[in-house]
Write a structure and sequence with these properties.
The protein is mainly β. The protein is built from 2 helices and 48 strands. Strands 13-2-7-6-5-8-12-14 form an 8-stranded mixed beta sheet, with no helix packed on it. A hairpin with a 4-residue loop joins strand 22 and strand 23. The protein is globular and about 75 Å long.
Length: 555
Amino acid sequence: MKICKYIAPLLVLLAACQREGSPVTPETPVLQLVEHTLYASTPGEDEPATRTVVSALNDKKILWSAHERISILSGGVNYLFQGENDAPAATASFTGTGPVDLGSYIALYPYNLSATYSEGYVSTTLPAYQLGKAGSFGDGYLITADDATGNSLSFKHLCSGLRFMVNRDDIKAVTIRGNNGEKIAGDFRFRFASEDTPVVEAGTEEYVTLRPSSGSTFEAGKYYYIIVLPTVFSKGFTLMADNGSQVGELRFNSSVTFSAGLFKNITGNLNERMTWTTPSSQVYYGYENSFCLRPGKTIRFDVNPRKIYGTWQRSGLLASAPVPDEAAVLWGDGSISSASVSVYDGSLTVTASTTPGSALVAIKKGSTILWSYLIWVTESAPAETTLPSGAKALPALGGNCYFQWGRKDPLLSSTERVENPESGCLAYSILHPTAYIKFNSSNYDWTDVIDWTLWGEGVAKTVWDPCPTGYRVPAKEDYSAITASFLTGNFEALGYITNDGYHLSDYFYWTRSTGIQGDVRKLSWSLSWYSGTSESDIILTDYRYPAYPVRCVKE
């Protein structure tokens, strides 16, 4: 299939906004606010207009929608300006209140109450979950801006995207993701270069999922647009469609650049190009299971439900599953407080204290735990160690944390040890992320179903991998050629947990690689060396029920 450039004719006009000053004392000068009207500049004959909707009569004509709203960022304040046109129009004026002299300001479409301007950068958000409009752009996603003075505006594009069409009426969602994990949406910031060109910095989200704003499925034979941040997909990108019972995938493996103001065009009907499979019923939340955070800093990330299927373990598609309405700290050492975690509208926000350490933060629906995340608070980025194999390894994940093979959640040396539930162990581990699950005597594993792909052997990094973005659980090859002296000089003897409790002194670190016992893969390779012995063969097999530390390696 051929991918062509589709240049979306867009160029945005602005409006300003009104904001009331806060109470002041008589000695404090009062900022006088006056009404302003701002106008879009008239584009030249060869200059496409930056506007917000496609004309219903002519898909080559782009118009301003009625009563559009924009932010005017002046003097550190975000003012709301609103369009005065009552119907879609080729030109528009925007009226709002602001200081007598707006000075040099940033005009931003669409209006975003949370947008800020500081030290030359504007911070705003491109949602990772978007509502598509048949034949046009979804409302408020086509972000544009102008670095302006006076009352004449000329918006520049900040975003890129993709245009597609389906020919069946059961498609519920379409997702785009880079094959190398590029950040294409979420919170981002931009600045204007000296030549008045906006420069966009990467966002926080790897996926953009589009759902129809009207009805539960896309209209067959209509064009839709997915908006993303300008990005170089170094290993190509993948599209996925969901019809509620099957998932379609279309993968492009060559490097491709999505430039601001330009849209890629999927020729023909998207669903006809896809390979369709039946997804697993398993649901997961969030794009990683652990995050590194600096003291005093805040992280916010998407935790909407997603599906797992086949070879693409991180689909990013909405699933028929509970949406979280509560967040809680399950354990911690003071680095994260219960008051500093919250979930709202599908996003989890976590603020670190000034104390380095680790915490396990859960999202819930009522009292039920849906998923949980390790938040690792460090003064600086964890330093990498180069192993003899050349792999770059982080320190032990989370500090003194332990993982049963294939589980995503960290355990502490003092963790509760519970009897194996005999069935449904994987689901049990999600609901009880702080519990060490004792082995099942029938297979000597913590889970009733032996699954050697949980941490990604033979497949891509999975949703069960506990490592942060850009890292994964090491393979046994990553630990090749390690000597006892290298181990003792570069690894800590953190010990391990088994059914009978915590054992100190020994060196044990998991790999994701599994061994074979008979016809069943019950074993996993681990980096092992008993302290105080002369053991030289330090790559040994072991059952997967003990909880060992993990040193993540760079992908």
